[in-house]
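Q: Sequence in, structure out?
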Amino acid sequence: MQNLISSSEMKTKLFFLSLLSILLFGCPYQGKVELCTYEDALKTDKNLEGIWVAFQEDGSRDELLIEKLNRSVLQVSHKTLDKNGRSKSAAQYRVYSTNLNGTILFNVENQDSTYLYLKYGWTGKNEFYIQTIEEEYMSKNFSPDSVTTEVLKSFLFDKVDKKEIYSEKIEFYRKDSPEFEKVRMFMKKSGF
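A: Exactly. Output:
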């Protein structure tokens, strides 16, 4: 059976995707410690490998090229493209994960040796979402004398499944998949 999305549902979804992209790349919590090392990280999810796209309401999009570096580390190349497909920004990250109290969290290693922390989940065969741990939540609730991996993990351990710690979900679609084409066509018909 085919899953049909109404025009209003799709517009709402695209609005939230746009808003979420700003949240994801604008105000996530950045730390100076990782939640685990490369050696202790979980095995990568091979289904994440490939090119993924998050569409924005204004017609711009975020593209991720996810490649496996080794058994536990992914290389992520992130590009932001305007509505005409011109590159607005680009960055690269190393990403590796740990299981914290039953939730898989990614360390996203920036080039300046700081880390973002996020979780992901699958919403379909060719769709996944990400959510970052938010700066606002952490600044209000996390103020130790010194931040170490153990201190950060201990703080997050019983909060890792709480909704208020994360940004809204940003959904990514595997490029050229049926789901990607459906969203792309909807945006084109809607004038985005």
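Residues 35 and 153 are 7 Å apart (CA to CA).
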